TrEMBL record:
<keyword id="KW-0413">Isomerase</keyword>
<dbReference type="InterPro" id="IPR036569">
    <property type="entry name" value="RpiB_LacA_LacB_sf"/>
</dbReference>
<feature type="binding site">
    <location>
        <position position="133"/>
    </location>
    <ligand>
        <name>D-ribulose 5-phosphate</name>
    </ligand>
</feature>
<dbReference type="Pfam" id="PF02502">
    <property type="entry name" value="LacAB_rpiB"/>
</dbReference>
<feature type="binding site">
    <location>
        <position position="110"/>
    </location>
    <ligand>
        <name>D-ribulose 5-phosphate</name>
    </ligand>
</feature>
<feature type="binding site">
    <location>
        <position position="100"/>
    </location>
    <ligand>
        <name>D-ribulose 5-phosphate</name>
    </ligand>
</feature>
<feature type="binding site">
    <location>
        <begin position="11"/>
        <end position="12"/>
    </location>
    <ligand>
        <name>D-ribulose 5-phosphate</name>
    </ligand>
</feature>
<comment type="similarity">
    <text>Belongs to the LacAB/RpiB family.</text>
</comment>
<dbReference type="GO" id="GO:0004751">
    <property type="term" value="F:ribose-5-phosphate isomerase activity"/>
</dbReference>
<feature type="active site" description="Proton acceptor">
    <location>
        <position position="66"/>
    </location>
</feature>
<protein>
    <submittedName>
        <fullName>Ribose 5-phosphate isomerase B</fullName>
        <ecNumber>5.3.1.6</ecNumber>
    </submittedName>
</protein>
<dbReference type="InterPro" id="IPR003500">
    <property type="entry name" value="RpiB_LacA_LacB"/>
</dbReference>
<dbReference type="InterPro" id="IPR004785">
    <property type="entry name" value="RpiB"/>
</dbReference>
<feature type="binding site">
    <location>
        <position position="137"/>
    </location>
    <ligand>
        <name>D-ribulose 5-phosphate</name>
    </ligand>
</feature>
<feature type="active site" description="Proton donor">
    <location>
        <position position="99"/>
    </location>
</feature>
<dbReference type="GO" id="GO:0005975">
    <property type="term" value="P:carbohydrate metabolic process"/>
</dbReference>
<feature type="binding site">
    <location>
        <begin position="67"/>
        <end position="71"/>
    </location>
    <ligand>
        <name>D-ribulose 5-phosphate</name>
    </ligand>
</feature>
């Protein structure tokens, strides 16, 4: 997929990792839109998940960071246009794209080092959805009641 833009957001726990990941995204030649937060003042991770979801367009990816990656990914996945995968390494990042067609990757800044997160993000951005049987499974994620 040709990537138009990459949106990135975090809570106070993810500020430092966000700086590193933004640099990595720029080095890959992508446009990166930083939605904050940008300091260590305590904020609520759902606000940043919802903000990023509201901006996410087709052909764009998102990157979300909180302390564990858990809260911010749960909040992001409440949105119909988001399939957010919390990833811990290149393996999970690759499969999040190949099998789950994730369009948002989440990291736990208190869990993962910047080097591993950067490698995982690069893998996420370059990996295509495999389709086939995974297409059917991804479609089944949506609940009938919500269709
Ligand atoms: C904030 O202290 C922390 O709860 C948050 O960053 C995240 O880990 C929640 O899932």
């Amino acid at each position: 997929m040709k990537i138009d833009k990459i949106f990135i957001a975090c809570d106070h726990a993810g500020v430092e990792l966000k700086v590193e990941l933004k640099e990595a995204i720029k080095k890959l030649g992508h446009e990166v839109i930083d939605l904050g937060t940008n300091n260590k003042n305590s904020v609520d991770y759902p606000d940043y998940a919802h903000l990023l979801a509201s901006k996410l367009e087709p052909n764009c990816y998102g990157v979300l960071i909180c302390g564990t990656g858990i809260g911010i990914s749960i909040a992001a996945n409440r949105h119909e246009n988001v399939r957010c995968a919390i990833c811990h390494d290149e393996f999970t990042a690759r499969l999040a794209r190949e099998h789950n067609d994730a369009n948002v990757i989440a990291f736990g800044a208190r869990v993962i080092g910047a080097g591993v997160a950067t490698a995982a993000l690069e893998t996420f951005l370059k990996t295509e959805f495999a389709g086939g049987r995974h297409e059917r499974r991804v479609k089944k994620i949506e609940l009938e009641a919500d269709k």
